[in-house]
């Protein structure tokens, strides 16, 4: 795999590249020759644009520029190109493109943004090549191009019963002028998009071929691990004499407050790292989770806060309210804990830097490397490996920079590896946050006032002030307070909304209950009000949100089932809409989550298999972390360091999941995150229905209702 | 450092390593058999699962010095060309999301089906719950084990 990519790099570089420049990708002159991955049997293909080349044998090589972190982009992107190309999917070979900011834009895996960003670009890439192939065939046959059609890798002239394969036409087609504009398919005519297509990397994943960053080895490379300070500490001294004498250890180097052990094998380096004698000293506040619990309460009562949205007059609304409902919700820090820990290969040479590994943001990795070394970014190459999960952790380039630092210090190619313990103690966590909600109801049970304050640790804005129910309440105040801490935080799958959605949707359930209304009808009434009499800006699509609510309610037979307790939740995030209904039964006096229904509107579904797994996986992830996830601190030191004390959901703990999509032809949006935020509240609201007890803090497993349940 | 001779996937290998080196790292660093993954290093996640004399074991806590003449099978040796019934079932059900844990899942499932060709749902759950999947592909793992059980695992 690596050899193929390297060959591609060489050939692409030799051919000059530069085919894709933003939207003008099609205005290219020279064709780029690429070697496709079908092996020796396939001859080099001719390039049509940055994404696509076709060999004389008809093998279609599609480059996928975005990092693959498990979101399925390496399968979804090529499907879109192949659809508009009318390619035979069995002839498609997919290759991961390296970082190439001249050819591609936004080579990022994050924010569920890849599909919406690239949808039109990818369609045009396929459609342009299809049009050029059609014109080449028409020319050969001397017939008007309009009389020709395409299907599964062939151009057809039905009137004369002739056909030519794309492979036969590739060379001459690639020499034609690139059309200035192309006609895209009517979504109703899609043949490939919307079907069930398997992960293109399955053959390699299922046979254990090298694919991931940790699988990258280079002759002569050294292995490195780093001991980093806990939060609020700095390095005082290190005694590395004994460690340097250990077998396989090449060097122990320090930089900033880090101690790096470099050696000839992973195990020898791990043993040496564990044997280091390091003295740390206090450099900042040493915070504990118990301090945070106290701090949150102070911040919730603080006079000064950053106002995020203010509609109407909340004070008046609460003064004249017939009823006021309030509740507070709190979540702990969470590590991302992708199963493949952080790692990266770096080789700092006098003439440039080679980087290989798992990153959601290769361009950031390149730019930070260039900045650190004071060199031009074009001296840094980045090859992307498949990632063993990321969940936002690999949006940061800190671990890439560590590899660069160590390679530079020891003047050798280095693979930097984090142990699981490093991963859990190394920072960049989902921030711990607490919310206070207040709602004012009038005598008819209408919510006429709404207040939300979010307080969090290095959380930035812990609210999403324009989310539902904003727009549906006349008097609304949303503000936030942030506490700065030495404990580092970062984007964690569905940043902020991964817990905020639980809090909001649980609170709305409480308000509906106080108003004596059905929770689903309560939300539908609010949406109707937002539609008829909107307050302020509305940044969600009311009809699409209503659509998923109604679809979920229909599929789960909301309110009509006997013997199960249902809980409802709906959320708009990352441009997609997802409603969920959890179903709980009582067994031996304890609530058991049996099933979750999900109804999603992400526009056009590109791949049924990938899309359904993203929804199901998000629900498992959302429930798992709501139930069990808990990272606590004692004097700046994380108290959980591995999966023996930090609990992840396991196979025997999952509910059934049933996924439904709203069918439409709206341009597709991403699915890497949007089904996670609503999961926690669908469960908690069902548990309330079953037990009469509200779950307001995560992890649920430590709440009374689960006490004694293993 | 000592010289260890190992029988892996029907082939002879040897490595000069510290005796306490876990089999996992010998497979990866010394033999280039990188299909076996590191996830936790403390036998909690199952990503490193291989077969030792046909039984599923966690290679991250198995010192190379404890293997002796035992026969090791890794994901690379489960079949010549990815046609083991469990690998086929995994593809049919399209189990992988990120894919990192799947070699360990497959090795655990293959050992289960060898011992218990027609496992009940409870047996599948009890066995497979030992392997973590951070992406949450558990539904498909469960389904794929069932599919594989109809294909006749030897």
Automatic annotation (TrEMBL), chain A:
Pfam families from the UniProt entry: MoCoBD_1, MoCoBD_2
InterPro entries linked: Ald_Oxase/Xan_DH_a/b, AldOxase/xan_DH_MoCoBD1, AldOxase/xan_DH_MoCoBD2, AldOxase/xan_DH_Mopterin-bd_sf, N-heterocyclic_Hydroxylase, OxRdtase_Mopterin-bd_su_IorB, TAT_signal, TAT_signal_bac_arc
SUPFAM superfamilies noted in UniProt: Molybdenum cofactor-binding domain (SSF56003)
Domain Aldehyde oxidase/xanthine dehydrogenase a/b hammerhead positions: 207-284
Any one Gene Ontology molecular-function term assigned to this protein's record: oxidoreductase activity
SMART domains on file: Ald_Xan_dh_C
Protein origin, superkingdom: Bacteria
Signal peptide: none
Protein name: Aldehyde oxidase and xanthine dehydrogenase molybdopterin binding protein
Automatic annotation (TrEMBL), chain B:
Origin: domain of life: Bacteria
UniProt domain 2Fe-2S ferredoxin-type: residue ranges: 2-78
Top-level EC class as recorded in UniProt: oxidoreductase
Enzyme Commission (EC) number: 1.3.99.16
Keywords: 2Fe-2S, Iron, Iron-sulfur, Metal-binding, Oxidoreductase
Entry GO MF terms: 2 iron, 2 sulfur cluster binding; isoquinoline 1-oxidoreductase activity; metal ion binding
InterPro entries for the chain: 2Fe-2S-bd, 2Fe-2S-bd_dom_sf, 2Fe-2S_ferredoxin-like_sf, 2Fe-2S_ferredoxin-type, 2Fe2S_fd_BS, Beta-grasp_dom_sf, Diverse_Oxidoreductases
SUPFAM superfamilies: 2Fe-2S ferredoxin-like (SSF54292), CO dehydrogenase ISP C-domain like (SSF47741)
Protein name (record): Isoquinoline 1-oxidoreductase, alpha subunit
Organism in which the protein naturally occurs: Fibrisoma limi BUZ 3
């Amino acid at each position: 795999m690596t050899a193929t990519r390297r060959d591609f790099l060489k050939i692409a570089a030799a051919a000059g590249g530069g085919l894709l420049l933003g939207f003008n990708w099609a205005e290219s002159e020279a064709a780029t020759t690429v070697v496709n991955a079908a092996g020796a049997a396939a001859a080099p293909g001719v390039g049509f644009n940055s994404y696509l080349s076709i060999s004389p044998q008809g093998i279609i090589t599609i480059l996928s520029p975005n990092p693959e972190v498990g979101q399925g982009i390496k399968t979804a992107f090529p499907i879109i190109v192949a659809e508009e190309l009318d390619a035979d999917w069995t002839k498609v070979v997919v290759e991961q493109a390296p970082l190439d900011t001249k050819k591609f834009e936004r080579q990022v895996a994050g924010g569920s943004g890849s599909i919406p960003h690239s949808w039109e670009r990818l369609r045009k890439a396929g459609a342009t090549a299809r049009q050029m192939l059609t014109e080449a065939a028409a020319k050969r046959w001397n017939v008007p191009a309009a009389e020709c059609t395409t299907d599964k890798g062939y151009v057809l002239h039905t009137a004369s019963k002739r056909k030519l394969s794309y492979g036969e036409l590739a060379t001459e087609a690639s020499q034609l002028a690139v059309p200035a504009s192309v006609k895209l398919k009517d979504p109703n005519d899609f043949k490939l998009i919307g079907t069930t297509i398997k992960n293109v990397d399955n053959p390699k994943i299922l046979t254990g071929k090298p694919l991931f960053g940790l699988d990258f080895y280079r002759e002569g490379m050294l292995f490195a691990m780093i001991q980093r300070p806990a939060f609020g500490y700095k390095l005082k001294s290190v005694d590395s004499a004994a460690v340097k004498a250990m077998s396989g250890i090449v060097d122990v180097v320090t930089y900033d407050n880090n101690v790096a052990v470099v050696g000839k094998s992973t195990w020898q380096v791990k043993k040496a790292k564990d044997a280091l004698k390091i003295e740390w000293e206090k450099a900042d506040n040493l915070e504990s989770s118990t301090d945070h619990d106290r701090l949150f309460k102070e911040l919730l009562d603080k006079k000064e806060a950053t106002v995020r949205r203010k509609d109407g007059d909340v004070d008046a609304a609460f003064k004249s309210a017939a009823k006021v409902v309030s509740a507070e919700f709190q979540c702990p820090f969470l590590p991302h804990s992708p199963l493949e820990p952080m790692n990266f290969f770096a080789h700092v040479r006098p003439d440039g830097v080679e980087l290989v590994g798992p990153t959601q943001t290769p361009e950031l990795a390149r730019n930070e490397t260039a900045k650190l070394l004071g060199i031009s970014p074009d001296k840094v190459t980045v090859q992307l490996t498949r990632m063993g999960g990321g969940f936002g952790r690999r949006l940061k380039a800190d671990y890439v920079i560590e590899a660069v630092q160590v390679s530079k210090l020891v003047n050798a190619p280095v693979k930097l590896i984090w142990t699981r313990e490093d991963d859990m103690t190394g920072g960049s966590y989902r921030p711990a946050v607490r919310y206070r909600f207040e709602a004012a109801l009038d005598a008819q049970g209408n919510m006429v006032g709404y207040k939300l304050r979010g307080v969090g640790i290095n959380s930035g804005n812990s609210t999403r002030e324009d989310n539902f129910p904003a727009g549906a309440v006349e008097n609304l105040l949303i503000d936030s307070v942030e506490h700065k801490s030495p404990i580092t935080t970062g984007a964690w799958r569905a940043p902020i909304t991964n817990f905020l959605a639980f809090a909001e949707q649980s609170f709305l359930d409480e308000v509906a209950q106080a108003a004596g209304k059905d929770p689903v009808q309560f939300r539908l009434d609010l949406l109707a009000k937002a539609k008829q009499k909107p307050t302020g800006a509305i940044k969600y699509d009311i009809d699409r949100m209503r659509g998923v609510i109604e679809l979920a309610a229909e599929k789960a037979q909301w309110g009509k089932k006997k013997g199960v307790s249902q809980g409802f939740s709906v959320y708009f995030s990352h441009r997609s809409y997802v409603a969920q209904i959890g179903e709980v039964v009582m067994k031996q006096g304890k609530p058991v989550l049996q099933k979750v229904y999900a109804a999603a509107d992400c526009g056009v579904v590109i791949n049924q298999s990938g899309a359904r797994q993203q929804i199901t996986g998000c629900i498992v992830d959302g429930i798992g972390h709501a139930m069990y996830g808990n990272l606590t601190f004692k004097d700046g030191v994380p108290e959980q360091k591995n999966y023996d004390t930090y609990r992840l959901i396991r196979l025997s703990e999952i509910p059934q999941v049933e996924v439904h999509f709203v069918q439409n032809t709206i341009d597709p949006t991403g699915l890497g995150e949007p089904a996670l935020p609503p999961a926690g509240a669908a469960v908690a609201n069902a548990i309330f229905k079953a037990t009469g007890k509200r779950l307001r803090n995560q992890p649920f497993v430590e709440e009374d209702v689960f006490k004694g349940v293993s | 450092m000592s010289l260890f001779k190992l029988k892996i996937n029907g082939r002879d290998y040897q490595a000069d390593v510290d005796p306490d080196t876990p089999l996992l790292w010998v497979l990866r660093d010394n033999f280039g058999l990188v299909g076996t993954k590191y996830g936790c290093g403390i036998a909690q996640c199952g990503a490193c699962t291989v077969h030792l004399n046909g039984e599923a074991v966690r290679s991250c806590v198995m010192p190379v010095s404890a293997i002796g003449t035992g026969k090791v099978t890794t994901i690379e040796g489960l079949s010549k060309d990815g046609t083991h019934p469990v690998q086929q079932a995994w593809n049919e059900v399209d189990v992988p999301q990120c894919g990192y844990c799947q070699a360990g899942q497959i090795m655990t499932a293959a050992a289960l089906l060898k011992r218990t060709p027609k496992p009940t749902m409870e047996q599948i759950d009890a066995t497979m719950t030992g392997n973590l999947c951070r992406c949450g592909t558990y539904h498909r793992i469960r389904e794929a084990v069932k599919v594989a059980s109809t294909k006749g695992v030897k």
